[in-house]
Fold these 3 entries.
Entry 1:
Amino acid sequence: MWCQNVSQFCQKLVRRRPLEPREGSESLLARCLNTLDLVALGVGNTLGAGVYILAGEVAKDKAGPAIIICFLVAALSSVLSGLCFAEFGARVPCSRSAYLYSYVSVGQLCAFITGWNLILSYVIAIASVARAWSSAFDSLTGNHISQGLQGTLSLYMPYFLAKYPDFFALGLVLLMTGVLVLGARESALVTKVFTGLNLLVLGFIILSGFIKGDLHNWQLTEQDYNLTASGPNGTYSLDHLGSGGFVPFGFDGILRGAATCFYGFIGFDVIATTGEEARNPQRSIPLGILTSLFICFLAYFGVSASLTLMVPYYQIDPESPLPQAFLHVGWAPASYVVAVGTLCALTSGLLGTMFAMSRVTYAMADDGLLFRRLARIHTRTHTPIVATLASGNLAAIMALLFEFSDLVDVMSIGTLFAYSLVVISVLVLRYQPDQHLQTNQSTEDKTETPEPEAGPLESVPKAGILKTLKSLCDPINTSPTLKSGRIVYGCALLLVLLLTALSLVLAQWPRRVFSGDPVCTTVAVLLLVLSVGVTVTIWRQPQGPTPPPFKVPALPVLPVLSIFVNVHLMMQMTSRAWAQFGIWNAIGFAIYFGYGIRHSLEDTDPQPPASNSQTLDKNIPGAESS
C-alpha cells in the first residue's frame, strides 16, 4: 500500500499541463499590446539602473576595458535563452512566461520552482530599483531626505534591516502599482515614454564618450600607473590594478565580469508574460524578445566603451561612474542629463518588473499552485487586480524596510535557474509526439500482443536491451513516439548533471584543468565527451511533425550551449548567495506541499474545464478551471 502511495505522490510532482489551451477556456485579459509595446516593455525592463552603475563596478575591479567583452559574453548567454523564450512564446501564447513553459514540458514541481524563483527575482529587483530611484532623487536634493530619515528613525530599526525606512521608495512602488491597475495599455504608454527618454540620454552618453574619449586608456602600461601614483593622492599599485593593457585582469576577470554583467540583461523575459495581452503573440513575442536584447546589448556596449575611453578604468568611481567621468573630461553639466536618464531608466524598469511579477503570480494562482483568489481579474480594466495589488504591496513593504544591495547574486541565481529550465523545456518538448496522439499510443502499447517466447528466459531482456541501445542513435521511427520522448527526457536529465559537474570543475579548478593537471584535465575531458555523446543521442531522435511558428536554430546544440553557459555563470556566485537561495526555496516547498499540490487543477479536474475566467463578482471554487 505504501509503495502505491509513494508512486501516486511522485506522479503528482511530474504532472504536466496541456500544451494547448483547455477546451472552453477564454482569457479575460485584454489583447491590446503591439510589437512596439513589447519592445518598449522589454528594453525598459532590462535597461534599468545597471546601464548607469554596472559598467563602472565591473570595469574598475573585474575586467577593465575588457568589460565590452563581458557584456558580449553576457549578451550571447541571454540570446541563447532568449531564442528558447521566443520559441515558447510563439508556441504557447499564454500569460505565464517560464512558469508555464516548464509546466507543459518537465512537470508541476519544476514549474512551481521556476515561478517561485521568478517571484524572488522580481521582488529583489523591484525593491532594489525603488531604493535606487529614491537614492538618485535624494542626491539631486542634496541628500536632505535621507539625512532627515536617518536622524529621526534610524535608531528604531533592527540591525538586520536597512539603516532607515525609505518612505519615498514605498510611495513610488505604490504609485506604479496604481498605474498597473489602470490597464495594460496605460502602463505600456508610460513605459514607452520613459524608455524613449532613457534611450535618448544613452545616445548622448555614447556619442560624448567617443568625442571626448582617449584610445590610450585601452592601452595602459606600467608607466601610466606610476605616473598616476606619483600624484598627491597616488596609492595605486600594479598588482591591485591588474597587468595593464586591454585585459588587465585576464580571462578569469572576463568570466567574473560576465557573470555580473548578466544581471544587466535580466528582464527581457517580461515579454513572455504578455502572451494573453499581445495582439499577435506568435509574431510579436519572438520579434520583441530578440529586438529588445539587441538594443540592450548596443546600449551596454556603447556606454561601457565610452566610460573606459573617457576615464582610465582604475580611476572610475563605482558609486557614480558616469557623472564623475563627465567631470573628468570637463563636461560637468552633463551629469544632470545622466541624472534624468537614470530616473527614466529606473521608472521604466520598475514598471516592467512589477508587470511581470503580477502576471506570474496570477498564472500560478490560476493553476491552483498559489492561493486562488490571486487569480481574480477586474471586469473593467481586464487586469489581474488581486495579484497586482498583492505583489505590489509586498514589494513596497520590502522596499521600505530592507536593503537589497547584497542580494543581487541571489536574484541572478534565481533568474539563471528559471532560464535554464526554459531551455531544457524547449529541448524536451521539440522531441515529444503530439499530445492528442499520446493517449492512442499508450492504448496501443497496452493492447499490443506479446511476442512469442523464442528461447531461454534470458534472451528476452538481452534482446530488449540491445534493441534499446540501437534505437538511441539509430531510431526507426521518423516521427516521435512515447518511447523516443522518454529517451529525450532521460538524456536531458543526464546532460544537466554532466554539464553541472563540468561547470563545477571548471569553476573550482580552472588553472589546474588548463595547465594539464592529469586528474582535473582527465575528469573535464571525460565529462565533455559524455556530454557530447548524450547530445548526439538527443539529436538522433525524431522531432515533432508540426513545426512551431518560431524555431530555435541548431537544436540541440544551442540549447545545450545555453544550459552550460547559464550553469557556469551560476557557479560564479558566492556560497552565501546559494545559502540564501536555498532558504527561499525551502519556504516555497512548504507552500507547495502544504497548499499547491492539493489544490492544483491538474489533480482535481481530469476533464477539460468549462471556463478560465475569474472576476471580482463571483467566487472561485477549488475545482474551477484555469
Entry 2:
Amino acid sequence: MKLKLIFLTLLFTTMQITWAQVKFEAKVSKKKLGVNERLRVDFEMNKDGDNFTPPSFSGFTVVGGPNQSISNSWINGKRTYAKTFSYFLEPTARGSFTIKQAKIEIDGQVYKTLPIKVVVTGAVDKPKDGNNSDFVASENLHLVAEVSKGNPYLNEAITVVYKLYVSPRISVSNWRELDSPKYSDFWSQAIDMKQLKVENGQYNGEPYRYVILRKTVLYPQKTGKLNIEPLSLSVSVDVPSNRRDIFGGRLYTTVNKTVAAGSRTINVKPLPTQGKPDDFSGAVGDFSFKVETNKKELDATESLDAKITVSGNGNLKLFDLPKLTVPNGLEQYEPQHSERVRTNLTGMGGSISDTYTLVPQYKGKYPIPAISFSYFDLKTQTYKRITSDEIVIDVKKGPDGGSSIVASNDNSTNKRQVTQTENQFRFLKLDANFESIQRTYFFKSALYWASLTVPLLAIPLFLFFGKKRQERLNDVSGNRVRKADKLARKYLSEAKKNLGNQKEFYIAMERALHNYLKAKLHIQTSDMSKEHIRGLLKERGADELVAAEFISLLESCEFARYTPSSTSAMQQDYDKASKVIAKIDKQV
C-alpha cells in the first residue's frame, strides 16, 4: 500500500513539473458575440516551438492574422518567456461553434490546446472588441460634419465644417481623401485652408484633439429636403498594442482606417410669396444699390460709362442685375460684368457691377430713367426695394437731331423725332483721286523662285535631324535616364512648390514617394511597410544601397514633419529624392 502511494505521489509530481515547464493554451476575447462583431483568438506558449498548426476555424472567416508577438523579460533574476499567435475572426452565421485544437511541437513533443465553444447571436447595435486594433481605431477616431443651419431659406448661405477628432489614446500619422462630396443641389465654394491647426476640444464629453480639414459655403438651389454627401478619408492610425519593448514601453501598431462624415439632411424653405416683387431676380441677403455715370456733360460721338452696382452680403453670384434703359438718341453697347466677391464662413460679400458704354448721336438732354432693385432681407424676412435717381445727360455739341425729346407714357423709353438737314451727306467724298493698279505675276517672281529652291535646301536638314532622332531612339541608356528624370519631376513637382514650407513640403514629398511606388511596384498604401518595400525593390533588381536610400527618405519625411528643418535641408532631400527615383527607375 505504501509503495502504491509513493508511486502515485511521484507520478503526480512529475506531471506537475512537466506542466510547469510547458504551457500551451488558447484564449478568446469573448465566448458570446454578435454576428456583426469580431473575435480574437490567441494561442499562447511559454516555450518556443516549431511547426505551429492552427485549427480550421469552421464557422468563421479569418480577417486578420496570424500576428506573432514574443515577450521575453527578466524579473528578480527569473526569466519569463511568452510567444503568441493571434487571429481575428468574423462569424459567417449564427449558432454555436467550436474553436478546435491547435498543435505545436516543443522539444520533440506535440502539444495541443483545449477546444473552446463560442456562441454567435444576432447583430448587436454597437459592436465591441477591445482587443481589436481596428475597433480601437474606430472608437477613438471620428470625422464630423458640422452644419451651421439645418433649416435655411432658398439661396441662404450655410457652412459645412469638417473636423477630424482624435483621442489622446491614439495618434494619426497621415490621411488622404477617398471621396469628396459633390453638393449637386447646392452652389458651393470651398474656403482655402492655408494651414491645418491642431486644437483641443471635446467629443461626447471626453477630451479630444481635432483639426479642421475643410470649410465649405453652400447656397441651396432647391427647396425641400436636400442631402449633403459625406466626406470619406483613409487615415493611418497608430494604435497601442499589448506588446512592449525591452524598456517596458508600449509598442504601437499602424491601422489603415476609413472614416466618413455621415450624410446630413437639411430642409430648405421656399421664399415667401407674400409681397414678392414682380422684378425679383433671386437676390437674398443684405444689399445696397446705385446707378452712376462717369460724366453728365459731353459732346456728341464722345462716350460715357453708366455703372449699375450691387454691394453687400448674400448670394452675389447667383442673380442678375437690372438692365439699363436709355433714350433712342444714346447708342448703348453690351455691358462689361465685374465681380469683387470674397467668400468666408458668413457667405459671399463684396460687390458686382455692369458697366455700359453709351455714345450720344445728337446734342440735347437725355434722361436715363430710374432703375429699381429688389431683394429678400434675411434679417427682417421681408422683401425690400431700392430705386435709383433719374440721371440727365447733357450733350452740348453735335448735330441737331430736330425736335426735342419726348418721354413715353410708360416712362421706360424716350423718343426723338429725327429730321433731315441740308448737310446730311457732308461725310461723302465727291472728289476722289484714283490711281492705276499695276498687275503683278507670280511666274518668274521672287516668290516663285523661292518656292522652288527652299524645298531642295530643306532636304539636307531633314536628313540631319532624322539621323539625330534615330541616334536618340537607339540610345537605350540615355532614354532610361531621361525617362527617369521625367518621372521624378512628375511626382516631385508638388513638393518643389512647397520648398520653404516644412510641413507641406514633407507631406508632399512622402505622398510623391508613395505614388511612385504605386505606379512602379503596383502596390497599395496598406502594403507600404518599410520591410515590404525593401523586399519588393530587391526582388525587382534594385541595389540594396538604393533601397536603403529610399527607406531613409521615407523615414526622413516622417521625422522632419515634427522637427525644425532649414530650406537648404529641404533642397538636399528634394535632390536626393530625384536621384533615388531615377536610380530605381533604371534598375527596376
Entry 3:
Amino acid sequence: MPYNPRSMDPTKYKDWEIAQEAEKYLPSVEEWVEKLGLEKDELIPYGKTPKLNFLKIMNRLKDKPDGKYIEVTAITPTPLGEGKTTVSMGLIQGLGVKGKNVGGALRQPSGGPTMNVKGTAAGGGNALLIPMTEFSLGLTGDINDITNAHNLAMVALTSRYQHECNYTDEELAKRGLRRLDIDPKNVEMGWVMDFAAQALRNIIIGLGGKKDGYPMQSRFGISVSSELMAILAVSRDLADMRERIGKITVAYDRTGKPITTSDLDVAGAMTAWMRNTINPTLCYSVEGQPVLIHAGPFANIAIGQNSIISDRLGLKLFDYVVTESGFAADIGFEKFWNVKCRLSGNIPNVSVIVATIRALKMHGGGPAVAPGRPLPAEYTEENLGLVEKGFENLRHMIGIVKKSGIVPVVCINAFYTDTKAEHDLVRRLCEEEGVRCAVSNHWMYGGEGAAELADVVLDACNEPSNYKPLYPLEMPLRQRVEMIAKEVYGADGVSWSPVAEAKAKKFEADPQFADFQTMMVKTHLSLSHDPTLKGVPKGWVLPIRDVLVYSGAKFLCPMAGDISLMPGTASDPAYRRIDVDVNTGEVSGLF
C-alpha cells in the first residue's frame, strides 16, 4: 500500500518527518528491479539508493523509442526560491496518479546549501524526494569522488612545481619528467570542498621548508563548482568523460601556454576516481515514482542541470521524464535550450514555468523579500494590483520559452496565503498570452493536488515541438552574447571590458574554441546583471567584465559581474538544527 499524502499535513509536520513516514512504504530494491524492467546486473546495490548501470541499460534499450521530455523552469525568483523542485516532484507524482509510466531526472544537492540556509532541494511538503537523509548527506559519493579527483589535479600541480624548483632539467629527466615551467602566479584551478567556507576563498599554501612545497597564492571553491561537475553533466559516456578530463587546464606556463591534466599525467587517475559517477542513482518520490539523481547544482558555471546521461537513461525507461533547470528561464532554461539540448540531441516537448503569487507581487513593486525575515503583509494579503503588474516578468519568461519552439505551460505553485481571485487573474493573463495555465496544490496534497497540472502537461505533450537553438555554433562569441543579452534578457546591448574583449577576440580567432559552448554567468535575481532590478528592466546594457575558460567541459563563460565559487555560511545555518536519534540512527532537522 503506497504512502497517502492525506495522512501527513505539511502545515503540521516538517519535511524530514514526512520523508521518514513515506519511506516505510518504499518497495524493496529487488521489487524496483522488476518494476523498472531491469536485468539483475543492471542495478548496482547501494543500500536504499542503488545506482543504475548506464552503459548496460542503454545498450539493451538503444532501439527503444524515447518517452516524452518535460522541463521545469521558473520566473525570476525571490531570494526564497519559488519551488521548481517541489513542482517537479509534484508533477511526477501527479502523472503517477494519472497512471502514467513516469520518472524524474534531477540533481544531487551540495553539502554547502544543505548545511546552510537553502536546504537540500528535495522538494517539500507532500511533493518530496526520498530517502531524504541519504539524498541530503552524500548519496552514493559522486560529489566526494569529484572532490578527490579535482584535488588530485592540484596535488599533481603543486608537487610538480616543487620538483621543478628543486631539480635541474637533467635530474627531472632521470625521474621521467620534463620541465613544464609552471607559473605559480597563473594557476587556473584551486582546491575544493563541499561546504560553504568563506574563510578559504583566498589562502597561501606551501609555507614551511622546501619539503613542504613552495609558497603560492591559492583558493578553495565549493565542490559542485568544479569543472568536473560540469563535465559529469555534459558527458555522454565514460569515453567522453575521459577525453574531457584530459583537457582540463590546471595552470599556465611562464609563456602563457595552458598546462593540462594530461601534461601533469594525472587525467587517468582522476577518471579512476570518477569512474563510478557515470551511473545515475535511483531515488523515489514519496508516492513511489522513480527519480534518477545525477550531477549537481551551481547553475552559473556547472550548467545547472542534471546530467545528459540521466536524461538519456530516463527517456528509455519511462514514457514521461520530468527534469529541471537551475534558476529562472533567462539562465537555467537558456542553457537547457542552447547548450544541453544541443549536446544531447534530446528534443523537449514541454517547458513548465513555475510562478508564485509571492514572486509576482515582488516584481509588481512589493517590498524586499529576505531569508529569515517575516514576509511583509503585501505577500500574505490579497493584492491584485501587484500581481497584475508583476505578471510582466512571467510574460517575458513565456516569451523566452516560445522563442525556443518548446511548448510552455505555466504552473502557479499555490501557497495557502494565495486567494482564488489572485489565481484567476494569473489564469486570465496567461490565456491572453495563449498559454496553458494550471494551479497546483502538490505541496499540500501530493500527486492528487497536482492532477490539474498533470492534465495540462499531458495535453501540451500532444502538441508538436518546434525546437530550434537561438544561435548557430558558427556564430562568433561576441555575437552570441549580444543575441542572448537582447533576445533573452531584454538588454539594449553589451559592453565589454578591455580584458573581456581581448579574450573574446582571441577565442574567436582560435579554431580550437569553435565548438565551445557559451555559458553565461549573471545574477539569478534579475533579468539584468543588477539583482535589485525587478520585473522587466528597460534601458540597460549588459556589462561583460571577463571570460572564463573551462577547457575540458568546452565552456566559455562570459561574466556579467562578480561571482564567488565559494559561497559563505550564514549566521543561522541549518546545521544548528540537524541531529541524530542515537537509538534509531534517524536524522532530524533536514529540510
